Amino acid sequence: MPPLLDLIAIIALGFCAALGMGSLLVPSWAAGVVRLVAAPDPEKPGGFSEFRATYGGLLLLIHLSALIILLQGSLDLTYKIFALFPVAMGWIGAGFGRTLSLILDGKENRSKGMIPVWIPMELILGLMIIAPAFGLQS
After folding, report:
1. Distance (Å, rounded) from C-alpha 28 to C-alpha 7?
2. Closest by Cα among 109, 9, 16, 15 to 55
3. Beta carbons of 10 and 71 less than 8 angstroms apart
4. Nearest CA-CA partner of 77 in 10, 15, 134
5. What does the pLDDT average to over 4-9?
6. 19 DSSP 8-state letter
7. CA-CA distance, 124 to 130, in Å (whole number)?
8. What is the pLDDT of residues 91-101, one digit of tens each?
9. How far apart are CA 72 and CA 42, in angstroms?
10. Quick one: how far is CA 9 from the chain centroid?
11. Boundaries of every domain in the chain
12. pTM of the model
């Protein structure tokens, strides 16, 4: 069984990959989660490809790639961190960006809605993904 910190990262990466798979297969679900409209302008349709690509394929494969590298028993943890760090920082960056939006964007957000829920979730996912680094000894 993997060490606890690895297990935490495995759970987070699996969850995020599942979000990507859901978005890839059911873009209308992704649109509802992020509260964006697939085709805000009837003259310019095509928003579902963005949900399938960015929220779907990108999230799915980035997290699966990091998960595959993390599960390589022959790799030293130091090398695994190089795969986990950018993925974790992406989630932490999303949390920071959403925090700025909550503070600065006011009416542009329509209402606070899910923003206060997503901020800690994104920060926690980032910390969970990078959790194995907390076990590194100098």
Report:
1. 31
2. 16
3. yes
4. 134
5. 96
6. H
7. 10
8. 999 999 999 99
9. 47
10. 12
11. 4-34+45-128
12. 0.88
